[in-house]
Design brief:
Layout: H1 14-23, E1 31-32, H2 33-40, H3 46-54, E2 68-69, H4 84-94, H5 107-110
Parallel strand pairs: 1-2
Helix pairs in contact: 1-2, 1-3, 2-3
This protein binds a DNA duplex (13 and 13 nucleotides) through residues 13-15, 32-34, 37, 42, 44-55, 57, 65, 68-72, 75-78, 80-81, 84-85, 88.
Length: 117
DNA sequence: AATTTGACCATAA
DNA sequence: GTTATGGCCAAAT
């Protein structure tokens, strides 16, 4: 079969793939960067997930980026986010997620099961 | 086209 | 418990 030239490249960008997964995270649940990458079909791309979400800053998105945290169960603070990190915690608390005294979330309890529902 | 960037993760000492 | 380090890879500049 002549493949008309280009290989079967995804019409959507890789990052957009991550956005779709993040969008599927139900309220009151959190997912880790590594998990999002894995569910998207790209294990090991955790870093790219973080970078993808970083590009969302200031853009109109229906993506619950605040439901994505790191594998340690805590929010990834960074000088680049200038307050957005603090906003994230507020949004999660508003969804009923409780934080530990160390500012961590109990992934055993609030962790999202992509294969659930 | 090469360099820089990054909100990560796992392991080791 | 902490700190350091390597690996991971695409998008933006």
């Amino acid at each position: 079969m002549t493949q008309s030239g280009s290989t079967s490249a995804p019409s959507t960008s890789l990052y957009q793939r991550f956005y779709e997964v993040v969008r599927r995270i139900p309220p009151g649940r959190v997912a880790t960067y590594g998990q999002v990458a894995r569910v998207a079909g790209y294990p090991g791309y955790a870093r790219q997930v973080g970078y993808a979400l970083f590009r969302l800053q200031g853009q109109n998105t229906d993506i619950p980026w605040h439901r994505v945290i790191n594998a340690q169960g805590c929010i990834s603070y960074s000088p680049f986010r200038l307050g957005y990190d603090d906003l994230q915690k507020a949004l999660l608390q508003a969804e009923g997620i409780h934080f530990d005294a160390e500012g961590r979330v109990d992934l055993q309890q609030f962790g999202w099961d992509p294969w659930e529902a």
